[in-house]
Amino acid sequence: MDHHCPWREEAEELRERLTTLEQQVATLTRTVFGKKSEKLPPPAEELRKEAPRDEKAQAEAALLKRRERAGVKKELPSRTVFHPVPREHQRCPRCHGTDFHALRPGRPSVLYEYIPGRFEKQVHVRETLVCACGESLVTAMGPPRVAEKTGYGSGFIAHLVTSKCADSLPLHRLEKALAREGLPVARSTMTDLFHRAATELAPVSDCLLKKVATQQVVQADETPLKVQAPEKTRTGYLWTFLSEEESSHDSLIAYCFSPTRAGTTPMEVLGDSHGCLVVDAYTGYNRVTTPDGRTRVGCWAHVRRRFFEARPHPAAQEMLKLILQLYRVEAAVKEAGLAGTSSHLAMRKEQSSQALAAIRSWLEENQPLHPPRGPLGTAISYTLGQWDALTRFVDDVRLPLDNNASERALRVAALGRKNFLFVGHDRAGRNLAGLYSLVATCSANGINPREYLSDVLLRVQYHPASRLDELLPGPWSRRLAANTS
Fold it and tell me: What is the mean pLDDT of residues 369-389?
């Protein structure tokens, strides 16, 4: 007797499709309408919730934070404002005398105030001298300018670039802000100045991108960026490549723009380099991660996100707890101040390896139990397919557990995308990427980008091309500190 029942297979397939659609609808509903608590929380937040409440340690941490802030406030420019006692108040209610003298230097109190930024019009007068013989003239040099016939100084241009690239302020809003401060500047003029700055600083931003490519460990990611087109906008891509220079520990963050998401961009940036590349599973990086190129390192944040999206299934919660154990090891290392040491490597080889073994066992056990095209089945297949790349961090403490640093580097671009919507053309995209690189690297190293850009915009015009790395934010800051000490 044939027990084969076509209707049972059809019913099983329909049940699988229904389960998949229900989970997709639940994920979409949570993403669009869900509360913040229903979004994927960072591992550090979950670990804090698990940790026992230590009120003494929390009080000490809060005190340390207050002292750090107080130390920063001490560096603010300070001025003393003296408040004299009015003459009409200088009368003694007892003896009715008016002969008062100071009892002490005064009662001081501190008030933090905001003084709006000030723009000024500078009139530069160049002295002209004539020889007594009347045959020759000499004229003093004028002020240094970013470009010939530019009527705006490097400080103003640096302010403009910082406002757009660090604060994601579109130029039409900056136009209104400048007008309120008494300096009306046309938006077209600011656009020209922005692109002029990008052109002048292009050698430095290109040098930064090449510097990133020489590092052993590089992280990369990409995000869409709308580009204006005749009928409607088209989609270009902003890529980020970041690393940390091993000799100086400078953070290096570089961006580049591409009209497409093709793998030609990673190839152009990293094609001749070697080391490790920390990325997600996107195939556009395959041309770089070859036996003769870079070793691919996976991202556990992407794995964790896939299982979170399958969370309506109870089994997904089990995997999220197992993945959190990997982050628990890294949190313990950071708290103990052992990051990058031999102890860090030993903890990864022992504790992280045990967590990975439990994760692998769970994946193999659960893979046959869930529809391969459902959210949970897809998450399992994704993790197993990336297994070698996901486990390489165990043998190298330089490798991060995930690629979140790249995603954080793209947040400023995402915010800017919401504010100024699109760039005008591909060249504008490249200019934006170059200036993003310098501003983001300044911010990552605790350098004021406005001060940096104001100086380098003038310096780069005469700096030797063979020593452009001296104008990168890290070396620039150290040289400035050495000259002022």
Answer: 90
